[in-house]
Each structure stands twice: as C-alpha cells, then as structure tokens.
Write a structure and sequence with these properties.
Rossmann fold, five-stranded parallel β-sheet, 2 domains, 211 residues
Length: 211
C-alpha cells in the first residue's frame, strides 16, 4: 500500500496521468479494495497538498493533481458496484454547499455510501440552497450529507441545514468533510452524524440499525 501511494503520488505530481491510471488499474485488478484506494492512497495524497491563498504555483499544481485524482476515483466505481455485499431501501443525497468547489471528498463519500448499500444521489459542487431544496422535494430522501472542506462555508451550511430541517424534518442530517471534522464543536448540534471514513459510516449503520 505504501509503495502504491509513493509511486502514485510521484506520477500525479509529475502530471503523468497515464502512469497514474496504469498504477491504479493494476492495483484494482490485483485485488485492492476501492475503499482502501480512496481512504489510504488518494485521500492522504490530496490532503498532503496545503497551498497558501497567494501561492499560485502551488494552486495550479493542486488543481492538476485534483484532475487526475477525479479520474482515478471514477475508475474505481465499477469495483464499488461489484464488491458491495448489501443493498437496502435508504436514499442518501450528497451535496456541497454554495461556493464549495472542493468535491473530491463528496464524490468519494458518495461511492463509499453506495458500497455500504445506500441508494445515492450526488448533486455536485456549489449547490445553492434553493437547488438542494428542489432535489429534496422531488426525491424520496432519508439522509442528507453536506460535505464541507472550507471552514469559511460553515455559516452558509448552518443556514442551509436550518432551511432543510424546517422543510423536511424527517430527513436525517449528516455532516462530512474536513470542515465538519475540524470544527465539530460549532456544528455538532446541527447534524445527527459526522462521517469522515469507513469507520464512521459503519458506526452510522450500527446506530441506525442497518447492519
């Protein structure tokens, strides 16, 4: 695993997309779980990039690696479908709030929830409150996951969660992403669960009686 992470990080940093795809394709074909790829390889690689707001060399480099990471994440989805062992009638809607453009974590989270048996819908990055409410109106949703990377968006998220709670009190609210993970004290009373990895999703399943 460490060897794969090291090789993949080098390939991604050098903008070698084809090599990155080859490495991940071979690993998946040889039995690597897509969840392990997401949690132990891609996520730590991307979390290792920390750019200042005016470090433009770092920012374009991050965006280039993000583009490759998105391809690798989607490559693994067929393995999610093949390897999932259960399915139940519970629908999760996953969204990033308005102005939140960091969506890799939300995509990974959607895939992981699918693996664990949920029906999933992902509305994408930068989802305005009105758009989210429209989706909730038109879909039968049991859980709403709001994914936040940038902590500065938590004020908007709190407003969004209140609107959802007022309009759809039966929908269980869940926080996800580094914004929720690092600022739990500010948001813990706004959501029932915070999910950040396999273990937290398994805890959700246990508490909800979905094992």
């Amino acid at each position: 695993m460490d060897n794969l992470k090291e090789q993949l990080e080098t390939a991604m940093a050098k903008n070698h997309k084809n090599r990155s795809v080859e490495l991940v394709s071979d690993a998946l074909e040889n039995g690597l779980s897509p969840l392990e790829l997401y949690e132990s390889v891609i996520t730590p690689i991307m979390h290792g990039i920390d750019c200042d707001s005016n470090d433009y060399d770092c920012i374009w480099h991050e965006h280039q690696m993000t583009s490759i990471a998105r391809t690798l994440i989607e490559m693994a989805y067929p393995y999610v479908i093949k390897q999932k062992t259960r399915s139940f009638d519970k629908h999760v809607l996953v969204a990033c709030p308005k102005d939140e453009y960091h969506e890799l974590g939300a995509i990974i989270g959607t895939h992981m929830l699918s693996f664990y048996g949920f029906e999933t819908t992902y509305t994408g990055a930068d989802t305005p409150q009105e758009t989210l409410l429209s989706a909730l109106k038109n879909l039968k949703v049991d859980y709403l996951v709001v994914s936040v990377s940038n902590v500065y968006h938590l004020f908007e998220v709190n407003r969004m969660l209140k609107a959802v709670s007022d309009a759809y009190p039966d929908v269980t609210l869940i926080g996800a992403g580094r914004g929720f993970e690092t600022h739990k004290s500010q948001v813990k009373d706004k959501v029932r669960y915070i999910i950040t990895d396999k273990a937290s999703i398994e805890t959700l399943l246990e508490v909800e009686g979905l094992e």
